[in-house]
Amino acid sequence: MVGYWEPHTSSIDFCEENYRYTLYVAELLNSISALVIVVVPTLALAITPRPFSRWPRFILCYLSLIVVGVGSVMFHATLRRSMQNFDEVPMILANIVYLYCIAQPKEAHVKPLLALLTGLTIAILLVYFVFKWFAVFFSIFAFQTIFLISLSYRLCFHREAGNNTTVLRRLWTLDVSVYFAAVCFWFTDNIACEQLGVGHLHILWHLFGAFGSSMFPVILIALTADAEGFMLGLSKYGVMPCLLIDAEASNPFEVPLRMSSIHNMKASEKEPCIADSDVEKEVESFLSIMLSACCAIMLQMILAARFLAVRILNRTFRGCFFRPPQDDDSSSADSSCPSVSFSGCAFRWPYTAGICQYLFEEFDLTHARIFCTSTSSFPVVCALMGVNPLNWCMVDYPKCLEHWRSRPLSCFLDSTSFLRRLWHDFLPANAHQLAEGRLVVSVTEFQNSCYGIPLGKNLQVSSFKSNADLVDCLMATISLPGIFFRGLTRRNSKVSVDGLYSERRRRPGGKTVVIGSGSWGPCDIKPSKHLPWQSVALPQHMERTKHMMNLGYEDARANHALFVSRGWRIKAAGPAEPPNVKSLPTE
């Protein structure tokens, strides 16, 4: 049978047998292994110490590698010329960015160097697109790589001995050794393919190449930090070497907490710590806009694909392959019962906490009914337990930050043990009774269909047998298998995960106040100001947590009349525990 992407138009085909495993992916194993080129630079950027993790030039270094990884996946999956360009052009551009970083331009030399590199890039791309031979790309990339390795060798080894010399030489030796091994795997895979048969050395090229390529920006950061007068240290972050600004820090996530002393030292010496040129500011502003736009587009594509898949499955195999979501029972509730629905919010839960804080202060929650899913359930549970949500943010959330900083992968691929223990310590003995009928948690429960295939069904859980059952439900609604929690969460002996996989989107305008955490989707209340794009996928420090919570509090205050019109009853005696949202401590 003919493969889906045939005829192939790329100028090179690799050793893996085409369409061996599926008709829709030309080189399945090479495509999967290329995902490492996306993951490793992302991790390397995440553990880059401040202030260099915020420099646009170094962010561009890692972003260019991530684009290379995406292009490599598409290239191996299709073997089309357009996807080959998507793989090879970012590799050339990444080396141009490396060249800019290794030059360490002063403010007066930024614009001339950018103009020179722009002209060089245009000339290289013209040659690349006019001569579409693989040998042309290989020659350009090989020359760039050899030049960068030679120049970095000169900067790391041909220098006066200093406090950072050992760190620089170790980084260079490790990086070049790994990358040289990767190149050997690549050559062997292409030259000895007939002798080796259907080999998979190209997979090792992806693994070692991703590691080596992601290590080179670390060398560039180390050289820049050394020129700025920083003391460098080296630690391990799993298998990834981690650069430390403070040599005494034993954990890479402790570095930002120690930066104040370094900043003070720089200020006293009147030396700028971060480049403040107009060009850097413009690049940083443009980069922030592009990152926000990309995150929004990717999220919209994921949500659109999920809704489309659910609709197709419902129409084609209704009641068999995908069961429709269970009714949320809102119609059976007391018509006078006020209700609110919080959408999934990932690490934007402080915005939800700010709204819960206002509801806790101003309204009677005794007969309130709150629908929630994902991390929005955290502040909701606090409010329904009669506990000021601000107290949870001040007491328990710092414990979460401390736990995540102690882990190599932060909050990702963690077990549920820590959060379970935290909730059991926090919840009162009758928590499941207090939440009965008032808390409605959305989860996706996997059950066997009539064909024996486990598929999801949405459950709106509002009845809890015990505190353990309540905690199981809270773990399930925030579970993204393979991302947030490394295993499968279970409730009542059945695999249950985040409710967003199967939940119907509630429409605004009804009796329930619908609250969103982003600009997408129709809602009664959504953030009135832009929230940082990092808050979608990464845990936020206390200062940004305070900012998002204040924003949610003010948005709820601005919509006070909306809550009253939907049946929310104002507290007669005022808040039981009047807080000050601005008193939230910072790191």
Query: How many structurally independent domains?
Result: 3
Give the N-terminus to C-terminus distance in angstroms. 61 Å
Q: How much is the average pLDDT?
A: 76
Largest pleated sheet: 7 strands, mixed
Written as H for each helix and E for each strand, in order along the chain, the element string is HHHHHHHHHEEHHEHEHHHHHEEHEEEHH
Q: Got a strand count? A: 9
What is the global morphology?
globular
Radius of gyration: 27 Å
Structural class: alpha/beta
Describe this structure in words.
This protein is an alpha/beta fold and 587 residues long. It has 20 helices and nine strands. The strands form two sheets. Strands 3, 4, 5, 6, 7, 8 and 9 form a seven-stranded mixed beta sheet that branches. A two-stranded antiparallel ribbon has the order 1-2. The chain has three domains: 28-276, Rhopdopsin 7-helix transmembrane proteins; 277-316; 317-330 and 337-581, no CATH class. The longest helix is centred in the middle third of the chain and has 39 residues, at 278-316. Helix 3 (56-78) packs antiparallel against helix 9.
